[in-house]
Design brief:
The protein has about 150 residues and is an alpha+beta fold. It is built from one helix and seven strands, in the order H-E-E-E-E-E-E-E.
């Protein structure tokens, strides 16, 4: 005779328990503090240089930099909206670099709100782009600051 302790769980209940366990495990990742690897305060006191012919083009969740100058840049930092930054290894003549907007971090380690299909908040506009190199902040050309929806 079968009692409540030896009877197998119904498949639907077992599936619901597995889904609940997975949901709880994924919430654990949401509670962690933001990465502070790129977290920096905007360098207000740096000398402002001229605007360079480096185009900054925004995609839906990506950013592309293209160096159209005849100048090579060594290690430098990209600044967006005088608030978010990302270090760059360098930028060669004619080189294009593409990366996710979420790699841009503010001084608190929070990422740029890029938008995208699963976004829960309105995406931020990109209105200012600068390159910090050798103690100078150079202006960059923002070709498209609004997200491009596919």
């Amino acid at each position: 005779m079968e009692n409540a302790r030896t009877r197998p769980l119904p498949v639907a209940l077992l599936g619901a328990l597995v889904m609940a366990a997975l949901a709880m495990a994924s919430l654990n990742g949401c509670s962690s503090a933001p990465s502070a690897a790129n977290a920096r305060v905007y360098p207000v006191t740096l000398e402002k240089g001229p605007t360079l012919d480096i185009q900054v083009v925004r995609g839906e969740t990506t950013l592309t930099l293209t160096n159209a100058t005849a100048r090579v840049f060594g290690p430098c930092t990209l600044w967006i909206n005088a608030y978010y930054s990302r270090p760059l290894d360098g930028l060669a003549v004619g080189q294009s670099v593409k990366f996710g907007l979420s790699e841009l971090r503010n001084e608190h380690g929070e990422s740029f709100r890029s938008g995208g299909f699963f976004a829960t908040e309105k995406p931020e506009r990109m209105v200012l782009a600068q390159l910090e190199h050798d103690g100078t902040l150079y202006g960059l050309i923002v070709v498209r600051g609004e997200p491009v929806l596919k």
